[in-house]
Design brief:
By secondary structure, the protein is of the alpha+beta class. It has 2 domains: 31-72; 79-146, Sporulation related repeat (Alpha-Beta Plaits), CATH 3.30.70.1070. It is built from 4 helices and 4 strands, in the order H-H-E-H-E-E-H-E.
């Protein structure tokens, strides 16, 4: 009754090549080789657009930084005291005549629809402060501004 078995019972999970199990195949060609030529061209163009936008935005930020540094180095005569703003040119000229009679040297320039009347040129706001206090006695809405 004891007979020898002539075959070997296989293991549940074998490592042999002919086991019949499904083995995924690794693609032989990389992703970029499977893309069509016109798709490659479109990807290249999109990459260049993105690169251009990034370089432009970095340039704008650098320009802002340079402008900020230049504004901190105040040149002489960059501040003035704004005495009044008029829509009517005749009123601005009349007030300028009064300021000349008072001993000031007024400057008038236009900004939009307004004629701005200013007095003096100062290197910083602190040096304009005493004249501002003197002018506020006569002209209540005076203020220091950049030229």
């Amino acid at each position: 009754m004891s007979q020898k078995q002539e075959y070997v019972q296989p293991e549940l999970f074998t490592q042999s090549e002919d086991s019949g199990q499904y083995k995924p195949q690794i693609p032989r060609n990389p992703f970029f080789l499977r893309i069509r030529n016109y798709e490659k061209a479109m990807l290249f163009v999109m990459g260049m657009v993105i690169l251009s936008i990034i370089s432009f935005s970095l340039g704008v930020e650098k320009g802002k930084h340079v402008a900020r540094v230049e504004n901190n180095n105040v040149n002489p005569g960059t501040y003035t005291i704004q005495v009044a703003a008029f829509k009517n040119k005749q009123l601005a000229l009349r007030l300028a005549q009064n300021l000349i009679k008072s001993g000031f040297s007024p400057m008038a320039f236009t900004k939009g629809n307004y004629f701005i009347l200013c007095v003096g040129k100062f290197s910083n706001q602190e040096s304009a402060q005493p004249m501002l206090i003197h002018l506020q006695r006569t002209y209540a809405n005076c203020r220091i501004r950049r030229l």
